[in-house]
Design a protein that fits this description.
The protein has helices at residues 3-24, 27-30, 39-53, 93-110. The two termini are 20 Å apart. It has one domain. The chain is mainly alpha-helical and 121 residues long.
C-alpha cells in the first residue's frame, strides 16, 4: 500500500466514524442549549476543516455551497479583534450528512492527484 492509499483510507475511516456519530446522535443532543459546543457545530467544524485541508492551498479553497459565514469557528476569531463568532441557525443532520458526503467526494477526487513528499529520516 502506498502513502496515498494509506492517507485516503484514513480520511474515509474518519469520515465514516463521524457519519456514524451524526446518524446516531439523539435529537435532544443535536443542539442542546446546555452544551457550550453543540454537537452539530463540532461536526460542521470537523467537516469544514477536512474540506479546507484537502485543497492545494488556502487560496484554492471555495466554501461548501451551504456554508454560513463564521459557522466553522469554535471560539473567538483567530485574528484581531478576537470577537466571538456569530453562528446563527444550526445545520440539520441532513445538511451535515450532505456536507460529509461532499467531503468524501473531495477525498476521492483530490487524493489521486496529491503530491506526497515524505522525508525518511
Amino acid at each position: 500500500m502506498n502513502i496515498k492509499e494509506v492517507i485516503t483510507s484514513q480520511y474515509f475511516a474518519s469520515l465514516e466514524m463521524l457519519k456514524q456519530a451524526v446518524v446516531k446522535c439523539p435529537a435532544s443532543l443535536w443542539n442542546d442549549p446546555a452544551d457550550k459546543n453543540k454537537f452539530w457545530h463540532i461536526a460542521y467544524h470537523a467537516l469544514f476543516y477536512t474540506h479546507l485541508y484537502l485543497q492545494p492551498s488556502e487560496q484554492d479553497f471555495e466554501p461548501w455551497a451551504k456554508h454560513r459565514e463564521q459557522s466553522q469557528l469554535m471560539g473567538p476569531r483567530p485574528r484581531p479583534a478576537h470577537q466571538e463568532p456569530e453562528i446563527g441557525e444550526p445545520y440539520s443532520k441532513e445538511e451535515v450528512l450532505e456536507y460529509l458526503e461532499f467531503c468524501q467526494k473531495q477525498v476521492s477526487e483530490t487524493m489521486p492527484s496529491l503530491e506526497c513528499v515524505l522525508k525518511v529520516m
